[in-house]
Design brief:
The chain is built from 15 helices and 4 strands. By secondary structure, the protein is mostly helical. The protein folds into 2 domains: about 1-55, no CATH class; about 70-370, ABC transporter involved in vitamin B12 uptake, BtuC, CATH 1.10.3470. A two-stranded antiparallel ribbon has the order 1-4. A two-stranded antiparallel sheet has the order 2-3. A hairpin with a 2-residue loop joins strand 2 and strand 3 (about 225-230).
């Protein structure tokens, strides 16, 4: 009897996962297909458990050392490659790739780059300073509507509108953050959630200024030396330049004294304040900078679409951007880029399976929280496993 109880205790976790898979797939695929998926998951878990038991610890240790040895010898070369010609080759690849793609895939790449910039901006707020912002899309909307109004009502062109959209988003962030950043944790998240919904409702009801549900159309396109941006290739190269600028800026900012202070605030705000860090000022700075990047991306979105409406700035957009940060790894710039690629590019490529995209998205997030809570390219904190 004791042996049976020990067996049940060891394998109860393995039994929960197939049951969970069966419950998730049942409403979408029916009993037969859901049962097959659950049995497949159970079989894979069984193989994994058998492999763990059969591989001796000494073999695992020798295998780990065999892998770590070459990795340590190659690490100087890899670090040099990351900072040198590898980045140049990557940029050249991104410049040449759309020339061989259709307009549809160019548009997908443009959309992915937009979300990379948005996620990098949110990463400053959430990943660096540790502020849970659930209304990030509000600043994206403020930037888009700022340029839309300036373009249609005052005839202001794209390039000054780009700066003004980022500036207006930053000002709104400062006005909101000044009274609310003294709140912590869930309280601040609730405030930002309310901000996102209030912004959408205002845009939807202020007919004289925002056009209400009809939105604003005939927004001006970017113009360089007499050339008006019209094609998907034009807008892809523009947003690629903005992505490169954002990645360069974020890397420099994260490695600066301000970036290290943000990390200290994220890890333990009380300890950071005790060490002399002005936590309120630095949290406000993170909130303003992240919002400015959202506003800048909003201006690009308005110029590309030549039309904006409140339906483009829902709460789900904030959730998607936040998931990119969590999935890729908070505080990791390459992780943010990977998260945007996984959540934007892959669903578009597999559009034929769109009925199951959200199901796969939910499963991926749950698995991430279980097996790699620090994100795909995030770093493990000291003292954790």
């Amino acid at each position: 009897m004791g042996g049976i109880l020990q067996f049940v205790k060891r394998n109860i976790g393995s039994a929960v996962i197939p049951l969970w898979v069966f419950i998730l797939f049942l409403p979408f695929t029916g009993i037969g297909a859901a049962l097959r998926m659950a049995l497949t998951a159970g079989f894979l878990i069984l193989l994994w458990n058998m492999a763990k038991r059969k591989v001796p610890g000494s073999f695992r240790a020798s295998l780990r050392s065999a892998i770590a040895g070459p990795a340590e010898r190659l690490s100087p070369f890899l670090s040099h490659a990351r900072s040198g010609w590898a980045q140049v080759l990557l940029v050249l690849f991104l410049l040449l790739l759309p020339l061989f793609l259709s307009d549809y895939f160019r548009d997908v790449m443009t959309l992915t780059c937009m979300y990379i910039v948005l996620a990098l901006g949110l990463n400053i707020v959430v990943g660096q300073a540790g502020l849970l912002n659930l209304g990030y899309v509000a600043f994206y909307a403020i930037g888009a509507y700022t340029y839309a109004i300036l373009s249609t009502a005052f005839g202001i062109s794209f390039w000054p509108g780009l700066a003004l959209g980022a500036f207006c988003a930053a000002v709104f962030a400062a006005l909101l953050g000044w009274p609310t950043l003294k709140l912590r944790g869930d309280y601040f998240a609730i405030v930002t959630l309310g901000l996102g919904e209030i912004t959408r409702i205002v845009l939807n009801n202020w007919d004289k200024l925002t056009g209400g549900p009809n939105g604003i159309s005939n927004i001006g396109r970017p113009v360089i030396a007499g050339h008006t941006f019209q094609t998907t290739l034009d807008f892809y190269y523009l947003i690629l330049f903005i992505v490169i600028l954002a990645v360069f800026s974020m890397n420099r900012l994260i490695r600066s004294r301000i970036g290290r202070a943000w990390i200290a605030i994220r890890e333990d705000e009380v300890a950071a304040e005790a060490m002399g860090i002005d936590t309120f000022r630095l949290k406000l700075l993170a909130f303003v900078i992240g919002s400015a990047w959202a506003g800048l991306t909003g201006v690009f979105f308005a110029a590309k679409m030549a039309f904006v409406s409140p339906e483009s700035f829902t709460f789900f957009e904030s959730v998607m951007i936040l998931c990119m940060v969590v999935l890729g790894g908070m505080g990791s710039v390459p992780g943010i880029i990977l998260g945007a690629l996984l959540l934007i590019t892959l669903p578009e490529v597999f559009r034929d399976l769109q009925d199951y995209r959200m199901l796969a998205f939910g499963i991926a997030l749950v698995l991430m929280m279980i097996f790699r809570p620090q994100g795909l390219l995030g770093t493990v904190k000291a003292g954790t496993r």
